[in-house]
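input
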Amino acid sequence: MLRLYYVILVSLPFVIYYICKVHYMERHGDKFTEEKRYRMARRCISIMMHNGRIRTESHGQELLPAEGGYVMYPNHQGKFDTLGIMISHPRPCTIVMDANRSRMPIVDSFISLVQGSRLDKKDMKKQMKTILKISEEVKAGRRYIVFPEGGYGHNKNSLQDFRAGAFKCAMGARAPIVPVALIDSYKPFGINSLRRVRTQVHFLAPITYEEYGGMKTSEIAELVKSRIEGEIRARKAG
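output
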């Protein structure tokens, strides 16, 4: 957490400007396309990474579907995960996040900036409405990041169980599933140090609806988890 507090302190003038800008964008939403919002989000991430001495290597962008919406399913390691994916993903994408955690300072403004979805884990009806909303947006061409592990502990580069329900939004949209392997993504905000850190983002080959359409969500969860685990093992070994 030391680096997170350091980045916020060093970047405080920009953080204040950014929050005010987001509030302005919310009041004048029609003036700002998704592309403009995403460019601003990536600029914020770039400044934060520079101030925090963080570098991210990314691979596999050529494997991303060229057209249409899709859902990316990464392993979950820490607070930097979404930022590492977005700085590595050239086209606009957004995220679904726990409603309570999404209301934290700065995070709330970021979710509003990228027009993400907030999932109320305490209300099943609201959850289903959010899943249906995400499916419709993906059908319309949006790209989402969904963390099937739900949360994260001190798992580092190990994976926890993937929740089958996380895959309903992709299945409902009949959209490609893109497994994403994150390596050392816990280090930026998970170790008590300001030394330089390097993370990795690996976009894996998409799994099309034709491949997974006949599977149960629990089987899809295991398939995606196994591909991510295999990629992490291969990268750590070589």
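quick obs: The beta strands are 54-59, 70-74, 94-98, 117-119, 143-145, 177-183, 197-203.
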